[in-house]
């Protein structure tokens, strides 16, 4: 996994974005918007990662209560609703 905070291109050359790439180079998450500063883009990324951690933690706890050994994607999706 690779996390990148990078400057925009073209008309957004003075704004910042973030993305997360899988090991195969494919992007599986991105900021979806441009930020006026690198620190703002990094804060957005930190919030995203915190939210994902929370969802995964909640999902794992739900799975443990249900007697499952590991959470499934369905558990993660359900916890995010």
Features:
3-stranded antiparallel sheet, 81 residues, alpha+beta, elongated, 20% strand
Fold and architecture overview:
- The chain is an alpha+beta fold and 81 residues long.
- It has one domain.
- Helix content is 44%, strand content 20%.
- It is built from 2 helices and 3 strands, in the order βββαα.
- It has a 3-stranded antiparallel β-sheet, covered by helices on one side.
- Strand 2 and strand 3 form a beta hairpin.
- Helix 1 packs across helix 2.
- The longest helix is centred in the middle third of the chain and has 28 residues.
- It is elongated, with a radius of gyration of 16 Å.
- The model has no long low-confidence stretch (mean pLDDT 84).
Order of helices and strands: EEEHH
**Helical residue percent band:** 40-55%
Profile the largest sheet: 3 strands, antiparallel
Q: What is the strand arrangement across the widest sheet?
A: 1-2-3
Distance from N terminus to C terminus (CA atoms, Å) equals 26 Å
Tally the helices.
Answer: 2
Mean of residue pLDDT values: 84
Radius of gyration: 16 Å
Gist of the model:
The protein is of the alpha+beta class and 81 residues long. Helix content is 44%, strand content 20%. The radius of gyration is 16 Å and the shape is elongated.
């Amino acid at each position: 996994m690779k996390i990148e905070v990078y400057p925009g291109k073209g008309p957004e050359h003075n704004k910042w974005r973030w993305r997360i790439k899988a090991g195969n180079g494919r992007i599986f998450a991105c900021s979806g918007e441009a930020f006026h500063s690198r620190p703002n883009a990094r804060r957005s990324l930190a919030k995203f990662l915190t939210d994902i951690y929370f969802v995964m933690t909640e999902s794992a706890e739900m799975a443990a209560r249900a007697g499952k050994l590991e959470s499934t994607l369905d558990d993660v999706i359900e916890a995010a609703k």
